[in-house]
Every structure is written in structure tokens, then in C-alpha cells.
Amino acid sequence: MRLFAHVGRDVLMSAILFVMLFIAAVFAQDAEPAADASTTIVSVASEVKDAVDRVVAAVNAFKDATSKSIDAANAVKTAVQSKNFSAIKDAKKKVEIATEAVKTAKADVGKAIEAMNSAGPEAAAAVKAMGIDLAMFAGKEGGKETVSKKRDKIMEYTLTVNANPTNGGHVSRSPDQPNYKPGTIVTVTATPDSGYRFTGWSGVANGMTNTLKIKMSRDKDLKADFHPLYYTLTVNANPTNGGHVSRSPDQPNYKSGTIVTVTATPDSGYTFAGWAGAASGMINPLKIEMNGNNVNNTLTAIFFHLTANLLSFTDSRDNKTYEAIKIGNQTWMTDNLNYRADSSWCYGNDNSNCEKYGRLYDWYTAKTVACPTGWRLPSNQEWNALVATVNASSAAKNLKSATQWKYGGNGANTYGFSALPGGVRYTRGGFDEVGVSGYWWTSTEVGSGTAYRRRIDYDKERIGELALYPYNKEDFGKRFGFSVRCIQNN
């Protein structure tokens, strides 16, 4: 049969008929009469020819239907891009018709192949000799898959996403592709950047849900809208007649990231004692960045009434007059004690330092002799209560005097306590740290060898707490010379 591979179909069929007649003649001796054999041979040859013709016609019909389907798909895309809705409708109808034609043609090809197979190997060989490739029709899906791939490749759509404003957030697609096949479901998510909030969609969708599912049926545009976040900041004074609080800029609300400068100004007789609410501490003016950490918060400036809490008294032992201040529920002397007693010293043995910083006492004298009637040496727990009242994180600054401290270590003296850097006298008679540090005895012992003392340094915000040399059999620690602040008896 390969001798006839490139000859025309009629010549090929004549050759087939000749061969079959020759074979019949060879075996005619035991066969039916010649006329009957010839009729059978002619019938077989005719069946082969009909099967080949049917395959050729079916394949040509399939190619024609496929071409029309692709043309219809192109027409749809062109109509969509031009936004000609009437043309889109017509083109979609043509696609439907062409698709059905492809299905029918594919089925016809399948039936023709079955008839070819039934006609015998000569029919299949003849079809192959004509250059017709039936491989694409092999398998369950056959040519339908090839047509679908061609059509889907043509009918791909774009999904354009944007953020408004561009610095307000970003929009993601999943899957993230340049183009999408018809029917693809794309998940689109809007994510606001810091200081913004998502306010809705515009374009092919709307609503407030930040995640959408978009089914691709044409080219689409989608925009996510973002708006800046705004916060309020309320400022108050406590007490209201203690001072006033200003904001700069002074606005009803503030865009996220705005820096607001808040200033507390005490009225006459008051002092600024710190912030409460949206911030704490003693920094004044205070800068606040408006963000989610202080959203819609209130900031209160605390003012301390100095004159209302100030009192004075005279020590009957030497007629020295002292001032005292009420801080919380306690009343404290505002000066270091300067009562001359045994085991007390002026810093450096210089009397002028006693006038400036008060005297330095060992613990025994401080505990039993130093404070005048109606006053006592405070315990460590009473010092703790004072520290808590004046804000522990900045207690040293709040209690230090506004003068006398070296190296820029002066305090705010917020509560009128006027802590002074009286220094220390060592047990062997040396002096140190005047102008730099202040030490104060407490009545709280640690064993028999020492007691707690409180310390304020020029460069620290907090007040130190320490027991010196806690020996159980010696009193070495109690022989240091420290300052004394007396607290009023309840």
C-alpha cells in the first residue's frame, strides 16, 4: 500500500480493487461462482471508499467549525474592548452557535473514525496516506480540548487595581497575573497603610468589605479608597484653677502622625506636678504624636498648690524657724535639719555649710535626738509613700531644689520639698559629695549594724534606697553622717 501513498484517492481505490480481485482469482477454485465473488469484492472496496470519504468530510467540517469558533471569540473580545454592548451580545450568540457546531463536528469525526476502523486497516492506511492526523481526536476529550485552549488564549481579560490615594494603602490580587481566562475567580484585598483606613471600593465593585472575589468575564478596573485617620486630644488642668493647658496646633482633631505640643502653665501659687492620662512624667512642654496609641485620649496637667500646703514652725530648742509642706497625706520639713547635737557635723567642719545644707548626723542621733517635738525621723516606708506620691519615675527631679546642685543637676522642686545635696561624712571623719548627692537617714534598721538611707544624685531621676554595711555584730554603718528630714507626727 505504501506504493500508492501519494497518489490520488481514486487511483488508490482502483489499486485496492485490483489487488482484491487478484486475491479472489487465486483462491477461486474452492469458492463460489465468479460472479458472486466479484460482487463481494466490489462491496468491500466500496465500504473502504465510503469510510475514507466520511472521515475526510467530518474532519473538514470540524476544522471549519473550529475556525468559526475562534473568529467568534475574537469578535467578543473586540466588542468588549470597544464597550459596544450590542456587538457583545451578538458576538456571544455566535460563540454559543460555533461552540455547538464544534461539538457536533467532533462527534461526527468520532463516528467516521469508528466506520473507518470497521472497514479495515486499508481505510486507516488510506486516511493516513492523505496526510490526515487523527491523533488530536484520540482520547476522551478529543478536539474539544484543543479548540478550548485556542479560544481561552484569545479570550483573556485584565484586572487593573489601584489605591486612592496611592500612599493610603495597597491592593493585592490572588492569583496575581497580567491576564485571566474567562470564569477565573480573583480574590482582591485592600490593606490600609499606617495612618489610613479603608473606606470602600469603586469601579466594577462597591461596598466596605475589604476582600472581594471578582469573576473575570471582561476587562475590569477596581479602585480601593483610603482616608486618613483622625484623632482627638482633650487637655485639662487639675485643679482647674491651678493653671491652664495649651495645644499647638489647637484643633478639634488631628490627622494621624501630627505632632502636637502641649504646654502646662501654672497659675500664681501653683507649680506644675506632672502629666496624667495620655502621658506621664514631668516634661513640659510635651510633644505627642497622634496615632493609635493615644486615640481619643485625655491629657491632664497636675498642678500643686504650694501656698495652700505650706506652713512654718519654730524649734523651741534653739528658736530656729523651719518651713514644711504637705505632700499627699504627709507633712515634711522643706529644709534639712540644723539642730546642733552631739555626733552631728557641718560639712567640711565649715559652719556656713550648716546654714546652707543643714547638719549631718549619725543614725543614733538622728533617731533619738534630732527632730523637734511633734516631729520624727521618717521610716523607709514613709519615704516610699512620698516617692509614690510625687511619681516614682521622676521623684528625684520633682523633689530636688532648683538651686545648689552641681553639673546642671538642679531639680524642678515641683512639690516644694527642696532636697539639698548635703553630701556625706564618713566614719573616719572625711567628707564627700556636697553639691553632687544628698543622703537622708530613715528610722528603719537592718539588723543591728545599719539602717536604710535614701539617696538623691545630681544625674538621676529616681531616688536610691540602700542599707550600708549590714553587719549584725557591728554598728559601723550607723556611724556615717547623713542629712535629716523630719516628718510631722499624725
Shape: rod-shaped
Number of helical segments? 10
Largest sheet descriptor: 3 strands, mixed
Instruction: Give the helix level as a range of percent.
Output: 25-40%
List the strand order in the largest sheet: 1-6-4
Please characterize this protein's 3D structure:
The protein is of the alpha+beta class and 490 residues long. It folds into four domains: 2-154; 159-228; 231-307; 316-488, no CATH class. The chain is built from ten helices and 26 strands. It has helices spanning 9-26, 34-82, 85-119, 121-129, 143-154, 306-309, 351-357, 363-370, 380-389, 395-399; strands spanning 159-164, 169-174, 185-192, 196-203, 211-215, 220-228, 230-231, 233-238, 243-248, 254-255, 259-266, 270-277, 286-289, 297-305, 310-315, 320-327, 330-333, 344-345, 360-361, 375-376, 424-425, 431-432, 437-446, 450-457, 464-467, 487-488. The chain has a three-stranded mixed beta sheet, with no helix packed on it. The protein has a three-stranded antiparallel beta sheet with strand order 2-3-5, with no helix packed on it. The chain has a three-stranded mixed beta sheet with strand order 8-14-12. Helix 1 (9-26) packs antiparallel against helix 2, helix 2 (34-82) runs antiparallel to helix 3 (85-119) and helix 2 crosses helix 4 (121-129). The chain is rod-shaped.
